[in-house]
Structures are given as C-alpha cells and as structure tokens.
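Here is the promised in-class demo. Please do not try to memorize the tokens; focus on the logic of going from shape to residues.
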C-alpha cells in the first residue's frame, strides 16, 4: 500500500525524511513546501502550506520551526491526514496539549513525533539490557549533549524564543531528556542552573544544567551546551550490577562520531563487594538507521500493523513538561528570560 506524502518544510530535515520514505518504499512524496521554490526540485513545490492539500496527500510531514508546528499539525489532522512532525513538538507543553486534542478528535489518524534518538542502535541495545534485568536496578544516569554554536548562531531562528520557545535545551538537550524518560520514567524533583555565557546578546540559554529525581529515587543529571566546542554525546547508566554507556551518536552531520556502546558487569571480591574497574565490552555502530526505523514505524501504525511506540504525543508532552520544569527551576533565569524577551520585542517594534 502506497501512502502519498506532502512535506511542509523542505530544508535539511525535510529532505532527510523524504529520503528515508523513499528507501522504505511505502511512501510517495507528491508535494513539498518551503519559503522559496528550488528549481532543482523535480516534484511539485509550493510556498503556501495550504497548497499541499491540492495534491490530496494521505500524510503530512512537518519539518518546520517550532512556532508553526501546532498550527500545521492540527490543520492536517482536521483534514483527515496522518502526521509526522519533527521535534521539538512546538514551543511549550500547551502546544502539545492542543495537538493532543486534535488527535483525540481524529482517533483513526496517526500522529508521531520524530524523537529518533530512541531508535538508535546503541540506545536500543542499552534499553534491552536494562529491561532484561541482568544489570539490576537503575541507580542514576548522566547525560552530556553539546556542540559549538556556529558562525550563524545569533541569527538562527532556533535562538529566537518567539520562534523556538528556548535555546539549546529545547533544541538539542530535549533528546537526552527524552532518553532519561524512556529509561527512568517521570521526574518529580527538578533543580537547575540555566545560563547565557558566551552569546550574551542572544535571549536564550547556551547552557543548561539539571539534576532530577524520580519518585522511586532514580537520579539523573544533564548538561546541555552550545559552548561544548567539541561536539559531544555521552549517556551513562549506572545500575546495581554494572554500568552501560553510549559515547557518540550517529547524526546527519557526522560530527558526533561513531556510536560506541560499553557494557560492564561488576565482579565481586571474596566478601561480596564489587571490585573497581570491571572488564567491559564495546560494540561500535557505524550506520545510522534511526530515520528508516521511524519511517517504518510510522507506516506500520498507519496501515494498522502496530501502534506508535516511540514519539507518541504522550511522550512529547512528558518531555516538554520536563523542559519547562528545568527552565522554571532556576528563578534567576526565568525572570531574566522574561526581561530579555520583552526587550527583543520592543526593539523589533521600534
């Protein structure tokens, strides 16, 4: 069964999704939309998002700025279209709730959000080990996800809070938070420090540090940074019987390196105490299959084979609420952001 697709937002991510759907074989992209017509694109291309419906797609893919996501998603659902949307799912949890209401009004349609880190090979292997129970209870997690801001950092729409809802935390750190939620569940206690250290003229954070705890006592710490300078992904899970780490993450840019899954089981001394530095086993992954896995899951959900497991609206709401909790947990940042946002708005209206 072929599903016709229209893609709203035909930049880097829109084209990545197009390629993944082509490789799958169950989709046919019939129209794309972007701010300007690209003469090299051979399929119908429009600049008005509403014009995609002239091509009667079964599916709408949203690869657009956060501020546009809820309008496009809700409109597509109201028109009877299945929807795949990139993260972040809007600018706030309120945006997600709005999309959930549209989803509930159209129960026959599929809504999926693109949290592709959940389906990276190293992450899925780590999840299998945790779920199998051989590593014992999960005690705590650490996550670092950072990059260099880049030469156009200050001008990027992702750093305009009116467009994005925040800075590096909501843009990139949200992936690490989503993984924390997958491994540990919801967090009831959140502490944070949110900072603007290098790009002081930009009204969003370039660093966020958070310490979180679940009701069952699992602790997680995260550092999301735009001043890491060297692109870095590292997720560590420490359990009663050993530890698991994922270093590097395969990405479209290729700048985070190979994914390396490290697993170590504790060895006990004669008194039953774990000895330091247990032997570990490494598995390296060199091919990013996450885009293809997401396309396949989306397709299967539409044709009724199985429901969406990764990227549900409930998961989207959970992670957006956690992002908001981290921002709100630093009172200095909350008051400063409000002041800076008002200043930027005044400057633009002047």
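The designed amino acids, position by position:
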């Amino acid at each position: 069964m072929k599903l016709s697709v229209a893609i709203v937002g035909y930049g880097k991510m829109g084209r990545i999704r197009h390629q993944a759907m082509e490789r799958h074989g169950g989709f046919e992209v019939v129209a794309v939309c972007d701010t300007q017509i690209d003469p090299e694109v051979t399929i119908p291309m429009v600049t008005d998002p509403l014009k995609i419906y002239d091509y009667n797609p079964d599916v709408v893919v949203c690869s657009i700025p956060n501020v546009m996501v809820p309008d496009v998603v809700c409109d597509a659902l109201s028109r009877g279209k299945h929807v795949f949307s990139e993260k972040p799912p809007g600018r706030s949890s309120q945006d997600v709730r709005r999309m959930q209401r549209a989803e509930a009004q159209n129960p026959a349609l599929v809504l999926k959000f693109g949290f592709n880190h959940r389906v990276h090979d190293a992450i899925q292997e780590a999840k299998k080990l945790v779920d199998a129970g051989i590593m014992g209870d999960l005690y705590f997690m650490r996550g670092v996800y950072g990059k260099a801001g880049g030469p156009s950092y200050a001008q990027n729409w992702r750093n305009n809070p009116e467009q994005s809802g925040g800075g590096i935390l909501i843009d990139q750190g949200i992936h690490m938070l989503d993984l924390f939620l997958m491994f540990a569940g919801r967090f009831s206690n959140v502490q944070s420090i949110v900072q603007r250290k290098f790009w002081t003229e930009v009204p969003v954070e370039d660093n966020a540090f958070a310490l979180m705890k679940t009701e069952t006592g699992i602790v997680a710490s995260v550092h999301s940074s735009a001043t890491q300078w060297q692109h870095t992904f590292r997720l560590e899970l420490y359990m009663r019987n050993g530890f698991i780490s994922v270093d590097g993450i395969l990405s479209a840019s290729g700048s985070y390196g190979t994914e390396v899954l490290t697993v170590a089981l504790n060895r006990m001394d004669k008194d039953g105490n774990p000895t330091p530095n247990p032997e570990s086993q490494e598995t390296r992954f060199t091919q990013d299959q996450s885009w293809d896995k997401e396309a396949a899951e989306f397709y299967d959900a539409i044709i009724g084979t199985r429901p969406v497991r990764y990227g549900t609206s409930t998961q989207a709401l959970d992670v957006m609420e956690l992002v908001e909790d981290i921002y709100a947990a630093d009172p200095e940042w909350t008051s400063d952001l409000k002041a800076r946002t008002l200043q930027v708005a005044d400057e633009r209206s002047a």
